[in-house]
User: Fold this.
Amino acid sequence: MSTARFTLDPAFTVGTVDPRLFGSFVEHLGRCVYTGIFEPGHPSADEAGLRTDVLDLVRELGVTAIRYPGGNFVSGYKWEDSVGPVEDRPRRLDLAWRTTESNRFGLSEYIAFLKKVGPQAEPMMAVNLGTRGVAEAIELQEYANHPQGTALSDLRVEHGDKDPFGIRLWCLGNEMDGPWQTGHKTAEEYGRIAAETARAMRQIDKDVELVACGSSGQSMDTFAEWEATVLQETYDLVDYISLHAYYEEHDGDRDSFLASAVDMESFIENVVATCDHVGARLKSKKKINLSFDEWNVWYMSRTEAQVSALDWPEAPRLLEDVYSVTDAVVFGSLLIALLRHADRVTVACLAQLVNVIAPIMTEPGGAAWRQTTFFPFAQAAKYGRGEVLDVRVASPTYETKRHGTADLLHATAVRAEDGTVTVFAVNRSQTEPLPLEVALNGLDLTSVVEHSVLSDADPDARNTLADPERVAPHAATGTVLADGVLKAGLEPLSWNVIRLG
Assistant:
């Protein structure tokens, strides 16, 4: 096969990676919360009912901002149900997922969970703009963030949380363009309520960071027009607009699936163009950044039948996709797409954290383990910190039904503060290794510290409860750095992390 090539030069950069790019998402959906992060009585549970085996894996994963409590769930959420003595909290129907919510895990428990994950874990709270509005949003903000001396802040203290929660980052609703959303709105309706909510929240705290709902996907009929209308109302009031995207293999078309990031990068670039068009029209120097606060591989085609068959159970097994090596390679490529746009994508949330289309799986009363997708995320969160270098690949290509001509190589590189560089690369070929050469200009690099590969002779290999360590990264051989050129061979259908010292 022809060699894929690119050049790295510190004079040509994309932008600095915001740590929030490695965020995740906890929704009251399926077993993400109950028997996921929270299972009183589990052998590993701490005094608060949090599973310490899961906490250990969440820390290893390296997640930062954790979005909560939804997702579709938030459009029926009454925050008052989730605070105060657990025994007094009401049980409610969750219309989004046809389940019953016990509210045993609520706002205080979420903040306590973040504290136990560690200082890197930042709250990202969504407010309900589906069935509720401005008043409820600012009441939640007062309860959560005001020190004391008002009815709601004193209520928080009475509930046992003396210190404010300090939530800085807020989502103004969720997927309000989607007809599946409880309280679905037109762009004009949503833009108006988002603007009024933003104004009110900034009256309480002018420094809050606010995310307006963008389109639920690039395929929505109202895509781009939705963003333009919403931003016309909210441009000077919000900091981010959201993007959501999920990918799956359709009808055995693996070539297209492996090129999913082509669509993701197009989505990002089209939203940036729309944001900047609105800014130009408003004659504003402000730039709206992107919050890609739901992304993943998700076999969504299986979901509708699962949900419609439910009869209001509590925390059923839902959306528990078991990921293959192929899924992990696509997942890694999506991470590369986010890093390649780190100048504008400054928040991103992997949906979700545990059990529900998640990198971490648990068994009630039993083990917790890493899915194949765990490894690319953990490696990117650890080594993808610093300045993203501008990578322009010259690569062999292949044809796909969904995305046209695609490069076999998908890659980016990040330079850390200490001058070390990490190359993240995917070989999309299902059958052939891909030779790679990288010219290093103006970089004081002399050695290959590590070349880690996630691939397998069986592209459908998975980690399961019965075999939780079937798939893991392994060391590559033959990768060398000499005379300012890195040379490597990328295994077929592989995710690669090459660290240069």
In short: The first strand starts at residue 4 and ends at 8. The radius of gyration is 23 Å. Residues 325 and 459 are 5 Å apart (CA to CA). The chain is about 25% helix and 25% strand.
